[in-house]
Known about the structure:
This protein has 398 residues and is α+β, with helices and mostly antiparallel strands. 37% of the residues lie in helices and 21% in strands.
Amino acid sequence: MTTAEPILIDVKPALDIVPGMKANLILTSGPGLPWNEYVGGQREGIIGGALYEELASSHEDAVAKLDAGEIEVGACQDFGCVGSLAGIYTSSMPVFVVENAKGGSRAFCNMYEGKSRKRLNYGTYDETVRNQLKLIEQVVAPVIGEAVRSAGGIPLKPIMIRALNMGDELHSRNTAASLLFARELFPQFLKLYAKLGANLEKTLEILTEDHYFFLRLSMAAAKATADYAHGVEGSSLVTAMAFSCKEFGIRVSGLDDWIRGPHAAVQAKLFEGHDASEITWMGGESPITETIGLGGFAQAGAPTLQAYQGGSYEEMMKRNVSLYGITFGENPDYKIAALGYRGTPTGIDVFQVLQTKVLPVMDIGIAGSGGGQIGAGIVSAPIECFQEAAHRYSEKYG
């Protein structure tokens, strides 16, 4: 888990690069469910994906075709993908292709939709969302893809290491990483200026107008890293944590299948005009970052998160230190200056969680029942997943 070297090697439409992707397939976040069990924003996100891909002519037509199986639904991580919130992937959507240079794992993540709070991954689809997605598909992704290929790939780990020392934790705060990534592309943009023309100007605007562009790269890098550590016989380390609209789930390296439990507990700071009654679950796989020692496991290095997700810096420091009690070790590359450059707690161990009663924490955006983002906060994984994992481990290994 600490030796993986994730490198961004390309940007391509999902249909062209994701193994098993089909024109009538829509991918969504979390342990997989039958179509009829998806509810709320996650269900609406899937329907929105069908409309975006023109697989259906209306909301009602999309539901009918999904009910009939003419439009299929799959789980992102079954296809090597990782999804933000509802995590909607359709065949034409561009994805980052991240490969572990050490071998054995490749991961994909679709691109950030933009700074609007109305986004498909937050369960909203209308003409504004469609236009944002088309801008990414037709302008931004081709430009970045050209630059990445021209550069011969961009190593992501050095960017992430440096960003941690500049106040990011690579989940809810990606300000430094987004700017560092843009800087890596600038030489290629200059080289390709005549070819890219006006599309380059718009791409630079998207790259620099918001602080979350790098999150999808952080997620893909984390997925390639965690998958490299999955499938180790006898290992009790967690290699994925994810939500669906129905439940929370974890994967454990030495066990098969998802281990499912109830939704996580949440402490949120909501945007003005919203209250706790609106909080809803519609999926989410960005906690893959916490799985490799980032996000909530590095929040002591990101003090400005206080203003975004609430709480105090003292609480963040205390919470971060407590997580060393549930991990196998400390990351030799990802370090926290505020803790004396101690490596982030890395490698969540099922049995240490049960022994200490300390639950993994995750920094996430909060979705609203009416669609869109309504805040941000800290969530704690449910103990039931770890209890069930320990039971399965004992059954398998004795």
